[in-house]
């Protein structure tokens, strides 16, 4: 038995029957019982013990695969720390990942969860990935359309493939994304203006993101959290307008590629910022036993210390039920519940 406490950022205790660390993609994975791949454990809630094998992905490294006058294609191993990859790209003056600085986790999981932050998305610079098919033990290359990336989703959520490496196409020409949340006080632009002068560089954007995140978001090294617990729901514009009359400063974003179906959906739907709605219902910083949400961000569920996974899950379920009761919206978990 292995206690998973050091292996999940929500800092809950749960026992794994077996625990192995993969230090190379060639290492054999035992498939005789249920198994679960694990990176940093920044997107997982263990509500109970795991009656199987936890396979922790450790192998890391970054290499340049191809370089042209304008672009560099890099390959990162699945266990590579994501923030260190972003820092590496910024240090090499390559653009495409800088807004995703400080997202905790590994490269493999970044593709699994199709991570994004401040208007940048891993799929926008994604080129391909290599994965091991667990049933056939064969290595397969997946290109973007194969991966079925949608909002925090991909083909790889089912745990049928072990992602071994991911390649990204980064630009030598900065394509800076600074407009995200432009209508909000929390916008990237004012922070950028505080710390740098135009023309902004890739490093300026990276530094502004780090400043914003460290000032506003809880530090997972100190506090038990898995980031946003729920996905922002997609609702009709009609419903959004109705909600706006009840909630001042309600915020929503264009759905962009979220529905990945009919472009005309852009006119019908928006992605609702559900943190503001939770705030309105009194969830921001609300303590119940050993669980709370961040005083700055109601979507961040916090383990105040010693909470069990089940207690955290019950707290999150109360949030979900409250949103359902007051606004008839079904929230989906962004965190994987085990
Ligand atoms: C403080 C905080 C802030 C956050 N901010 C953001 C944010 O801004 N944007 C965002 O998108 N997310 C954010 N997150 C969520 C989290 O950082 C990401 O989901 C991250 O990609 C998780 O990486 P991980 O290595 O910890 O994944 P884990 O939690 O270990 O695993 C996540 C999933 O991926 C699977 N998996 C892991 N590695 C592999 C592999 N090699 N092959 C196949 N499957 C694999 C696991 O089985 C699991 O299903 C935040 C989390 C925290 C704690």
UniProtKB/TrEMBL annotation:
Keyword Cell cycle in record: yes
Leader sequence segment: none
Cofactor(s) this protein cannot do without: FAD
Enzymatic reactions: UDP-N-acetyl-alpha-D-muramate + NADP(+) = UDP-N-acetyl-3-O-(1-carboxyvinyl)-alpha-D-glucosamine + NADPH + H(+)
GO biological process, any: cell wall organization
Function text: Cell wall formation.
UniProt similarity note: Belongs to the MurB family.
Superkingdom in the source lineage: Bacteria
SUPFAM superfamilies: FAD-binding/transporter-associated domain-like, Uridine diphospho-N-Acetylenolpyruvylglucosamine reductase, MurB, C-terminal domain
Protein name per UniProt: UDP-N-acetylenolpyruvoylglucosamine reductase
GO molecular function: FAD binding; UDP-N-acetylmuramate dehydrogenase activity
Cytoplasm keyword on record: yes
Compartments in which it is found: Cytoplasm
Stretches assigned to the FAD-binding PCMH-type domain: 12-173
Known pathway: Cell wall biogenesis; peptidoglycan biosynthesis
Record gene name: murB
GO cellular component annotations of the record: cytosol
UniProt keyword terms in alphabetical order: Cell cycle, Cell division, Cell shape, Cell wall biogenesis/degradation, Cytoplasm, FAD, Flavoprotein, NADP, Oxidoreductase, Peptidoglycan synthesis
Active site positions, chain numbering: 152, 228 (proton donor), 334
EC code: 1.3.1.98
């Amino acid at each position: 038995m292995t206690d998973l406490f050091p292996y999940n950022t929500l800092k809950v205790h749960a026992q794994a029957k077996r625990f192995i660390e993969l230090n190379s993609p060639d290492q054999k994975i035992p498939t005789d019982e249920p198994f679960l791949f694990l990176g940093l454990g920044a997107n997982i809630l263990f509500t109970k013990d795991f009656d199987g094998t936890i396979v922790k992905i450790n192998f890391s490294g970054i290499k340049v695969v191809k370089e042209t006058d304008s672009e560099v294609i890099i390959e990162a191993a699945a266990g590579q720390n994501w923030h260190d990859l972003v820092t590496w790209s910024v240090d090499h003056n390559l653009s495409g990942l800088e807004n995703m600085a400080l997202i905790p986790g590994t490269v493999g999981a970044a593709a699994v969860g199709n991570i994004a932050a401040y208007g940048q998305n891993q799929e926008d610079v994604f080129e391909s990935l290599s994965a091991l098919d667990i049933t056939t033990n064969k290595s397969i290359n997946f290109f973007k359309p194969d991966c079925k990336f949608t909002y925090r989703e991909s083909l790889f959520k089912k745990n049928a493939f072990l992602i071994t490496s991911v390649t990204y196409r980064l630009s030598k020409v900065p394509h800076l994304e600074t407009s995200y949340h432009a209508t909000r006080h929390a916008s990237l632009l004012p922070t950028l203006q505080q710390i740098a002068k135009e023309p902004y560089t890739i490093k300026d954007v990276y530094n502004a993101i780090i400043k914003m995140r460290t000032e506003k978001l809880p530090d997972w090294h100190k506090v038990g959290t898995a980031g946003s617990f729920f996905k922002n729901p997609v609702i009709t514009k009609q419903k959004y307008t109705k909600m706006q009359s009840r909630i001042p400063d309600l915020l929503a974003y264009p759905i962009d590629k979220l529905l990945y179906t009919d472009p005309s959906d852009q006119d019908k739907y928006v992605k609702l910022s559900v943190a503001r709605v939770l705030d309105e219902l009194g969830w921001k910083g609300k303590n119940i036993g050993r669980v709370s949400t961040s005083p700055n961000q109601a979507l961040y569920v916090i383990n105040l210390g010693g909470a069990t996974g089940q207690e955290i899950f019950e707290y999150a379920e109360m949030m979900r039920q409250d949103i359902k009761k007051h606004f008839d919206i079904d929230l989906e978990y962004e965190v994987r519940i085990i």
